[in-house]
Amino acid sequence: MSRIAFLGLGVMGFPMAGHLKRAGHDVVVYNRTQAVAARWVEEFGGSSAPTPRTASSERDFVLSCVGNDDDLRSIALGADGAFAGMRAGAVFIDHTTASATVARELGAAAKGRDLGFVDAPVSGGQAGAQNGRLTVMCGGGEQDYRLSEPVIAAYARSCRLMGPIGAGQLTKMVNQICIAGLVQALSEGLRFAEAAGLDAMNVVEVISKGAAQSWQMDNRHKTMIERRFDFGFAVDWMRKDLAICLDEARRNGAALPVTALVDQFYGDIQAKGGARWDTSSLIARL
What we know:
Blueprint: E1 3-7, H1 13-22, E2 26-30, H2 34-44, E3 47-48, H3 52-56, E4 61-64, H4 69-76, H5 82-85, E5 91-94, H6 100-112, E6 116-119, E7 122-123, H7 125-131, E8 134-140, H8 142-152, E9 156-163, H9 167-195, H10 200-207, H11 215-225, H12 235-252, H13 257-271
Parallel strand pairs: 1-2, 1-4, 2-3, 4-5, 5-6, 8-9
Antiparallel strand pairs: 6-8, 7-8
């Protein structure tokens, strides 16, 4: 079992850190809101620390799951950052959905301190984190990945090294691009069924057995038909992720016309007051 620090106890990080503790690892946590860290310790045991640096001291692995690039820099770098507290040879595993640029930046900073670094964004949402069934896409060196894989296994059903540092984030961008198009297509299909006078539930029951089937269809059609969106992956988060995708596409020359359009549609949902609605709320604007 490993000595682990987990930085960031949001809807994903809180259960992920819990799985590590239940797997028998020695876990210390840090969260910007200390009351959340205290609640985690009360539920799972382990301990908490007041700064990323103190949490990361003498740990074999330091894991993070925070909001965005700037949040990630704030917990990793600087006098109170994790890198300042980590011992040589320890590995930093980042589960934040962030840019490939910040992954490479932190990877270079880690190398300068003789630390390992793996960018490892996840897919599966809050339910996947709670059930320990996340898909993890990793970027980094082969040795750092092999060391990290048994730790990640505590909350993952699938984990794969996709390439050098940054490749995990790039793969997560592909994931979000595909989801955006699928949810918009499902929204249009369900609304078309309603407008045509069909029973949308029956329609899905039939077409989900064929080529139209998807995770989004299987898991979101019922709540979309009922117009219930008070759960799941928030529109604000999806727009943050799509902004990362579109920014990367401007650099690599990939054309993302549908992604750009769906991003605008999510802006419409935010304007309707749905910033915290689930991403399946695209149907609401139709």
